[in-house]
Amino acid sequence: MDKVVGTAREAVSDVPTGALLAVGGFGLNGVPNVLIQSLFERGVTGLSAVSNNCGAMESGLAVLLAAGRISRVTGSYVGANKEFARQYLAGELEVELIPQGTLAERLRAGGAGIPAFYTPAGVGTQVADGGLPWRYDGSGGVALASPPKEVREFDGTEYVLERGIRTDFALVRAAKGDRHGNLVFNKSTRNFNPLAAMAGRVTIAEVEELVEPGAIDPDAVHLPGIFVQRVVPLTPEQAADKKIEQRTVSVPGTRERVSG
């Protein structure tokens, strides 16, 4: 089946207001910026996003966040996104922060049809006991807190029950993909993109390089096309447009490094 869609706008045309999205990327790396920009241009609102982070430097999900299009975020990292922190503390945004490894496994489990799993991560903390602020009331109080989770003991160790995540749509970016939706991810872009893709009921992939079926060695496929419903080939300019969150260079002749 040829899953190539002509434009990013066409690919996200049926994402409705209030949709739950899984979005790939790690920092600014491997973020489906073209698909996100198309959602922004459509004016979709009330979105819930599941992603490692919510973008930064006017890139990625930060585009939708700054426009007030996101109502809830499930993630593991706030980072330097000051608007994210402002909306959260002001009570404008509901946020579920969970351990990074737990987030990855919740996405993978959802995509694999596993409804829940036990993990030791978070036992003895508010992650398991409940009470983490999901939404503030805008004046310093907590309007909504996380509920307690089931904890069980296995072989003398306590584990907390975590639910798998399934989303309405998933937006991911791949270094290479074929017309059948088989995808290859480059280095750290592989951290969350394959997992986000698995979690989506409808997965849309923007690919930097589109190749014909058979051009990718089957042993090199990171995500099989069964998880992907739509493929959007990027232009060379779109593929080359990659943001750098923290540029670090070495001072010639020394071990000193300068960041900026």
One letter per element, helices H and strands E, the order comes to: HEHEHEHEHEHEEEEEEEHEEEHEE
**Could you tell me the number of beta strands?**
17
**Which structural class is indicated by helix and strand composition?**
alpha/beta
Q: How would you write the strand order of the largest sheet?
A: 4-3-2-1-10-13-15
- Overall geometry: globular
- What is Rg? 19 Å
Low-confidence stretches: none
Counted by DSSP, the helix tally is: 8
What portion of residues is helical?
Answer: 10-25%
Please, what is the average pLDDT? 94
Task: Give the distance, in angstroms, between the N- and C-terminal Cα atoms.
Answer: 46 Å
The main pleated sheet reads as: 7 strands, parallel
Percent strand equals 25-35%
Could you characterize what this model shows?
The chain has helices spanning 8-11, 33-42, 62-66, 82-89, 100-111, 126-129, 193-199, 236-240; strands at 20-23, 47-50, 70-75, 94-97, 116-119, 133-136, 142-145, 151-154, 157-163, 167-174, 176-178, 183-184, 200-207, 210-211, 230-233, 248-250, 257-259. The chain has 260 residues and is α/β, with parallel strands linked by helices. It has a 7-stranded parallel sheet. Strands 5-9-8 form a 3-stranded antiparallel sheet. Strand 2, helix 3 and strand 3 form a beta-alpha-beta unit.
